[in-house]
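We now fix the convention by which a protein and its fold are recorded. Here is one such record, which you should read through line by line:

>
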Amino acid sequence: MSRTFFIYIEEKSPLLKLHPLLKIISLLAINLLAWIIDSLTALLCAIIAVFLSFKFFKIPLARIGRFIVFAVLIVQAVMLSYLLGSTIPGNIVYYRFPWGTYISDMTLIYAFTMTAKFLLMLWGSTLLLAVMRDIDIVYGLVSMRLPYYLAFTVNLAFRLSTVFMEDYAKVRDAMILRGTNFSEKSLVQRARNYVRLGTPLMVLAIRRMFEMTNALIIKGFEPGRSRTYLYDFSLTIKDKVILLLLVAAVVLAFLLKTFYGLLTFPGWPFNG
């Protein structure tokens, strides 16, 4: 097993062995495709493909359960915002609310389309981030000809995000041991309990920042200094073909939508 930013992945996972540049380009491509595509059918097909990729690339879904909870919460927020606060004309109006909004057939299509866009971005990003390591961020961005200090800063942000999640779990467990009930039925009381997490997490974040700054100073880190690299990542013919396919997929989706009316809303099956 190999440790990534968030979980442990089997060493034989094909995605783990992927070139760092391709991991970053794949992450960008998935999010760009989710932003470009407006066809609900195409988005659902892409989501199914991403879920199958978790199994094919040997990434355990059981270890990323926290993202499922996050996805459910966001989906609920998106659906409620459309169902309770929109006035989208349609052929059929199912219900009118006293405050002037209503639910039509197009309201439901809009809501499901936006939800599908979000889920594709979330699960696609989760698929790639699950196999991201420190060296992938640094070497991937350096391969894009970005300055090393910028690549290191982005890597540091990812690293601190995982540390923050660990600190959150520790503080929450400590509060539970002291009698705090995060399962209160009252939404107000539950919100207050989570707000109380803010102060210790802020203190821990500031402490981590000072520790990281001192560590960088001790190691002599300087943005403008030329550096040597331990690993040598060279793009093979296979890597270049994959890179070309990723770029072509984004460009093709944009052209199909802009000039041919495909992948547009509502997109049943793939066009309006």
The first helix runs from residue 20 to 36. The first strand starts at residue 2 and ends at 3. The chain has nine helices and four strands. The CA atoms of residues 188 and 194 lie 10 Å apart.
